[in-house]
Amino acid sequence: MNLSRFAYQLNALALLIITLILAGAFAEQLYFGELPCPLCLLQRVGLMAAGLGFMLNLRFGLHPLHYGVTLIAALVGAATSARQVLLHIIPDGMGYGKVFFGLHLYTWSFVSFVSILFGVGVLLMISGSAHSSTPKLTRWIKLIVGLFLLVVFANLVSTLLECGLSECPSDPTKYLGLEKIRSWISGVKP
């Protein structure tokens, strides 16, 4: 098997995994009603930006610049999630939010970003420094890219409804942007 083709398939798999992580966090937000805090939102942005780098590789061919986008996004995301982990390390502390397989979502976020950093290092070794030709977009790749863009759009709309056009509250309890829209439509001040 051609190494650049293998790297291309790994980019598609990475984008699919990032899409599933973002969709899972979004579903958890909607199903359990836990609004993401500002650090959680920054972690989602980090995943979106990392996914953008993989998506650029799928659309325009493997290129170190695209991997650079993913690396920088993963570094920022890892720093943000590490900060949140450190905020919640206290004796007998319960942490923040639900636990998934024994760890909080912000801890899983850190693990995800470190995995992305490691994975991009491997992909850079596989694909080399020269960029490849523009690959043919199969139906599966188009589906993965479409799902990624849909999840990104849904998260952006949700964030706008949660925070409005102002700073997000540190401990969100309701959709402030949605409240402002409702009050604007009804003509009543919140």
Q: Can you tell me about this structure?
A:
The protein has 190 residues and is mainly α. It has a single domain, classed as Bromodomain-like. It is built from six helices and two strands, in the order H-H-H-E-E-H-H-H. It has helices at residues 3-32, 38-60, 64-87, 105-127, 139-163, 176-186, and strands at residues 99-100, 103-104. Strands 1-2 form a two-stranded antiparallel sheet. Strand 1 and strand 2 form a beta hairpin. The longest helix has 30 residues, at 3-32. The model has no long low-confidence stretch (mean pLDDT 84).
Layout of strands and helices, then pairs:
Layout: H1 3-32, H2 38-60, H3 64-87, E1 99-100, E2 103-104, H4 105-127, H5 139-163, H6 176-186
Q: Could you give a short description of this structure?
A:
With 190 residues, the chain is an all-alpha fold.
Q: How can the largest sheet be summarized?
A: 2 strands, antiparallel
Rg from alpha-carbon coordinates: 19 Å
Number of helical stretches of at least 4 residues: 6
Can you tell me the CATH class? Mainly Alpha
Task: State the strand order across the main sheet.
Answer: 1-2
Structural class: mainly alpha
**SSE order, one letter for each helix or strand:** HHHEEHHH
Defining traits:
2 strands; globular; mainly alpha; two-stranded antiparallel ribbon; Bromodomain-like; 190 residues; single chain
